[in-house]
Amino acid sequence: QVQLVESGGGLVQTGGSLRLSCAASGLTSSPYAMAWFRQAPGKEREFVVGTTWNGGSTTTADSVRGRFTISRDTAKNTVHLQMNRLKPEDTAVYFCAARQSIGRVSARVGYAYWGQGTQVTVSS
Length: 124
Fold this sequence. Notes:
Order of helices and strands: EEEEEEEEEEE
Distance between the termini: 40 Å
């Protein structure tokens, strides 16, 4: 079955950096896109940044633009999220997701596969 396994979360001070990784396995074909979402306590899960698999076109949420960058390794079916200049409001559980249907990269609907999530905590 399809599995997405995230790694790299942790505790960091304001202004610091973290790099998350997500390894996908079990996909029968290349995904249309992969993305990172996050969910803070008491809030809805929100889109952070995503990339199409072929071509690598990226979409980034306004709240993280200029600080967060997504990259992909198509040979290893892996995506990475580089997070710089972290803020306390970035504290959340971060989820990796993959979709095989064509659609808006930032739309939560359409992502059929999700990782278990990794905690990112930014202390002030």
